[in-house]
Specification:
The chain has no helices and eight strands. With 117 residues, it is mainly β. It has a single domain (34-116), classed as Immunoglobulins (Immunoglobulin-like, Sandwich). Strand 5 (80-88) and strand 6 (92-94) form a beta hairpin.
């Protein structure tokens, strides 16, 4: 078995040989963005938003009643593309009527698409 010498191919020093790994300081971590979502559901008792950002967990992101008709939430999400739906009263799954961006899901219905930049 060959002995490791700290040299890379063709006798050049192996990358990082003898050095401890360093984290690049020039790369910025993605920062979260504030995303406001609202739903008109005057007869609802509860509304939640579920999606790829919370593992489709109905209890994770409840909306707050803003007035007699509107429910609201402000999400903090890193840049990316997320599928989501609203869940009304724990049983009724609805697309975001204010967002025309949709994709079909495995259940034969659609999910709304949220693009965070």
């Amino acid at each position: 078995m060959p002995k490791r010498t700290g040299k890379g191919e063709a006798g050049t020093p192996a990358e990082g040989a003898g050095k401890s790994p360093k984290r690049k300081t020039s790369a910025k971590e993605p920062t979260a963005r504030s995303i406001d979502l609202a739903l008109s559901a005057p007869d609802a008792k509860t509304v939640a938003v579920v999606g790829e950002f919370n593992g489709w967990n109905v209890e994770s992101h409840p909306l707050q009643r803003k007035d007699s008709e509107t429910w609201h939430i402000c999400l903090q999400l890193p840049p990316g593309t997320y599928q989501y739906k609203f869940v009304i009263d724990g049983t009724r799954w609805e697309d975001d009527a204010d967002n025309p961006n949709r994709t079909m899901n495995e259940f034969g219905t659609s999910n709304s698409i949220l693009e965070v930049r």
